[in-house]
């Protein structure tokens, strides 16, 4: 028979655990602030130490590391001209937390900026295509602006390409397929279809996830496939995600399938129509 633990003793244990957890949180916050200060300080040795600390935290505590990267470290890294570190961490953070679209969106916004700052507009454009594929509907306007900026930089000999891209995206947002086809008819070949995503950073991570069939694991695989430009495979994965989604995840699973439609088409119209079709009737 187990001895009964007095209520007061239980309360003490709970309070002790709370104190320990609060201490860990304060220590992590202090470390994060120290890294930010070192990056912003301009000292080369301190910057190198900060980069090493971020690299280690991405292994030991990826969620906290990615959040701090998105909140302030990426901006500080770019300001300190640590462009290769920004590219590395955007990829590492994505692979560590591939099911978290909202985190990926911010990481890849900075990834594109790192490519642009190092005069690599074609790589920036490929990254922008990956971001367009993987982003949620709420992030689409930002993704479109980044695509337009990268198109201008990657193809300066065709100054009207960004404007044509925007017109096509506006036309492609029509939810009625006939209206969409009519609006797109005189706008030429699809600009976004001519831009390939870069599969290389994500190939090994996709391969390593083979056989992982749990909901969040599948969602992460779907996101990585979208980043790699493997839209047909991503659509098949997100159909599985939608089918097995727990009740509290239906909305997020729906977003995944809508993203796959957007990536397949290169426009948001069909995805928007599908989202409207599954909304509960008032």
Order of helices and strands: HHHHHHHHHHHHHH
Summed up, the helix count is 14
**Strand segment count:** 0
Largest sheet: none
What quaternary form is this? single chain
Name the poorly predicted regions: none
Strand content: under 5%
Structure classification: mainly alpha
Shape annotation: globular
Report the helical percentage. Answer: over 70%
- Whole-number count of domains: 1
- Let me know the average pLDDT: 91
What is the rounded Rg?
22 Å
**Terminus-to-terminus distance:** 56 Å
Please give a structural write-up.
74% of the residues lie in helices and 0% in strands. It has one domain (74-278). The model has no long low-confidence stretch (mean pLDDT 91). The chain is mostly helical and 282 residues long. Helix 11 (215-227) runs antiparallel to helix 12 (231-244) and helix 12 packs antiparallel against helix 13. It is globular and about 60 Å long.
Short summary:
The protein is an all-alpha fold. The protein has helices at 7-41, 44-60, 62-79, 83-96, 101-117, 121-134, 140-154, 161-172, 177-184, 203-208, 215-227, 231-244, 250-265, 269-278.
């Amino acid at each position: 028979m187990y001895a009964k633990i007095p209520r007061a003793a239980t309360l003490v244990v709970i309070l002790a655990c709370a104190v320990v957890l609060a201490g860990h949180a304060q220590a992590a916050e202090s470390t994060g602030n120290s890294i930010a200060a070192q990056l912003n300080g301009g000292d080369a040795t301190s910057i190198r130490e900060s980069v090493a600390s971020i690299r280690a935290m991405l292994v030991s505590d990826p969620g906290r590391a990615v959040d701090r990267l998105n909140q302030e470290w990426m901006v500080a890294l770019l300001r300190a001209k640590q462009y290769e570190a920004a590219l590395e961490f955007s990829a590492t953070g994505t692979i560590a937390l591939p099911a978290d679209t909202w985190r990926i969106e911010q990481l890849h916004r900075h990834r594109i900026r790192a490519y642009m700052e190092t005069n690599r507009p074609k790589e920036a454009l490929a990254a922008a295509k990956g971001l367009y594929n993987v982003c949620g509907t709420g992030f689409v306007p930002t993704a479109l602006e980044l695509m337009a900026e990268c198109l201008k930089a990657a193809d300066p000999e065709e100054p009207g390409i960004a404007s044509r891209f925007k017109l096509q995206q506006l036309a492609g947002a029509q939810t009625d397929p006939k209206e969409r086809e009519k609006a797109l008819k005189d706008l030429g070949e699809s600009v976004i279809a001519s831009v390939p995503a870069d599969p290389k950073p994500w190939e090994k991570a996709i391969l390593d996830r083979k056989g992982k069939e749990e909901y969040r694991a599948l969602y992460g695989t779907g996101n990585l496939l979208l980043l790699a430009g493997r839209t047909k495979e991503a659509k098949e994965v997100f159909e599985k995600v939608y089918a097995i989604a727990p009740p509290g995840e239906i909305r997020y699973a729906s977003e995944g399938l809508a993203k796959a439609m957007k990536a397949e088409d290169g426009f948001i119209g069909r995805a928007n129509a599908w989202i409207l079709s599954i909304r509960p009737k008032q």
